[in-house]
Amino acid sequence: MRKRIVCYGDSNTWGYDAVTDGRFPEDVRWTGKLQELLGEEYCIIEEGLCGRTTVFEDPLNEGLNGLTYLYPCLMSHGPLDLLVIMLGTNDSKERFSATPKNIADGMKRLVKKAKEAEDAWRNEPQILVVAPAPIEAPCEQSKVAGEMGKCVERSQGLAAEFELCAELLGCDFLDAAPYVTMNTIDYMHLDRESHSRFAHKLAEIIRRKV
Question: How high is the mean pLDDT in each 10-residue block of the chain (210 residues)?
C-alpha cells in the first residue's frame, strides 16, 4: 500500500489564486506538485478549506473549525503515515482577538486530537506542524482588509509559537516563510511560484520521515 499523507490546511492548501479569484490547477498547487515529486509510492491527500481555523468557530461562516472536522477527516483517509498541518492564518483575523500564543494553543489541540485517533494511523502518529508564512503589512489596506482586519502582527508571531508547540508535543516543525512569497494583490496567499518551492522542501522532509 502507498504511504498516505494528509495535508490539512486552509486556502493556501486549497490553492487559492488571488490573481483570478479562483483556484490554481492541480499541477500548480503544492499538494499536486508534492505528489509529482514523491511519485506513486506516496498518496498525497489534499484537505484544504478556505477560511479554516485551528479551533475557532467563525460566527460568519459555517464549518471552518479545524478541530471539529479533524477526527472524521483522519478516519476517512486512514491508514495514515503522516499528517501535515498548516493552519493559523485565518486565526489571525481581528474578529477572533487571538494572540499568537492562543493560536498555537489551538494547534496543540489539533495535534493531540490527531494523536488520539489511534485507529487512523498505520503505525505511530507522525505529524509535521507548518507555520504559515506571515501575512504582509499591505494586506490591511488590500481588498481583503474588511475580512481580515488587523491581522499582520498576530500572523508574524506564529512561527515562534508553533515551533515551541511542535517541540513540546514531539512533532516535526517547518517554517514556510523562507520558501514562499505572497502575491501582491492580497498579501496573504502564496503566489504561483511559491507552490513549487514549498513542495520541493516538503518532499525533502517527507522522504527522510516516511
Answer: 96 98 98 98 98 97 98 98 98 98 98 98 98 98 96 97 98 98 98 98 96
Sequence-ordered list of residues with C-beta below 8 angstroms from that of 72, at least 6 positions apart, any chain: none
Output the pTM of the full model: 0.97
CA dist., res. 40 & res. 37, Å (int): 9
Q: Write the CB contacts of 146 (distance below 8 Å, at least 6 apart in sequence).
A: none
Rg (CA), the chain: 16
Question: How many CA atoms does the CB half-sphere of 44 hold within 13 Å?
Answer: 25
Domains of the chain: 3-200 (3.40.50.1110)
How would you classify the pairing of strands 127-131 and 172-175?
A: parallel
